[in-house]
Amino acid sequence: MTNHSITCRPTRDTFVRFTIVLAAFFGFGLYFFYDGSIGYRKANEVYFSYQAFARLGNEATQSSPWGREIASRPLIQAEQVEGEWMVEGKYPLPSDCAAAQSTPAEAADYAAMRQGWANCWTAYTARMKFPVTPAEHAFDTGAIREQWIAGAVCMAISAIILFFILRTSRRTMSIDGNTITAAGQQFTVGDITRLDLRQWGKGYKGVAYATVKGRKIRLDGMTYGGFDPAAGQPAETFMQALLARYQGEILEYEQRESTES
Predict the structure, then answer these.
(1) Which listed residue, 1, 64, 166, 195, has the most CB atoms within 10 A of its CB?
(2) In what order do the strands lie in the sheet with 6-8?
(3) Residue 63 CB coordination number (10 Å)
(4) Distance of CA 145 to CAs 18, 39, 41, 79, 231, Å?
């Protein structure tokens, strides 16, 4: 039996997986925050502007030419509610919503609107850089609040993932003589009363559990060391060193090994 130290550090694949999940949740969080602060309000402006163009286009085909007052009317009938523009008191608009201030030239052109309001709408969206097709419905304050909540949840999960990344980066799984360090804890081989290896090894979860003073301590070979043959399978080397020193109960290790062979 040798007494040299074996140290398994976090694998590159572990950080790649963590980073992918972190990027996904952080990205979704930013997306939800954008919709809650800007996106849904912009969508409402497009939606109600489209409805106004359709209404004015219908009026143009059924009534006499408009007077000059049409250009001075706001395209969207909005009101100030708690410091921001809203339609019907529950559909927020951007603070700089031009459609809530005056009717644009494209919608105030009676002849063009009478001939085909859809063409006027297309011209307006091109100038405003709006999508031609509006959303199927407007977004009320409740929908916007949901975006903020969803964003906050994603950011909270991102913070938790970042915590685990930092914690993992500072930990190792090692054996030095009879002293073992794993899962942020240190104990001796003699402290182990049971070694559960049913999920150990490449092709499995790469996880074993050492029962120490009635508590299970996780030995995570996939996260620490890994099973890459090119790197010398550090996790398996760690386990073989542990087995060379351990004399207690082992769960299903020999049975699994015989099945593999």
Answers:
(1) 195
(2) 6-8, 173-176, 179-182, 185-188
(3) 10
(4) 29, 13, 12, 20, 50
123 has a pLDDT exceeding 80: yes
pLDDT at 14 over 90: yes
E strands present in the chain: 6-8, 79-81, 84-87, 91-92, 173-176, 179-182, 185-188, 192-202, 205-212, 215-220, 249-251
Residue range 212-235, pLDDT digits in tens:
999 999 999 999 999 999 999 999
Q: How far is CA 261 from CA 54, 185, 208, 256, in A?
A: 74, 34, 20, 9
Instruction: Return the amino acid letter for 189.
Output: V
| Closest among 171, 168, 167, 230 to 7, alpha carbons compared | 171
- Phi and psi at residue 192, to the nearest 5°: -80, 130
Q: Are 11 and 226 in contact (CB under 8 A)?
A: yes
Q: Nearest-5° angle of CA 193, CA 195, CA 199?
A: 160
Q: Are strands 249-251 and 192-202 parallel, antiparallel or unpaired?
A: parallel
Domains in the chain: boundaries: 16-153, 171-260
pTM: 0.81
Beta bridge pairs of residue 87: 91
Which residue is listed with tokens 């001939």? 115
Mean pLDDT of the chain, nearest integer: 90
Measure the CA–CA gap between 113 and 57, rounded to whole angstroms. Answer: 5
| Enclosing H/E stretch for 229 | none
- Pick from 52, 35, 51, 55: which is nearest to 43 by CA? 35
- What whole-number distance in Å separates Cα of residue 239 and Cα of residue 170? 21
The Cα 97–Cα 144 span in angstroms is 17
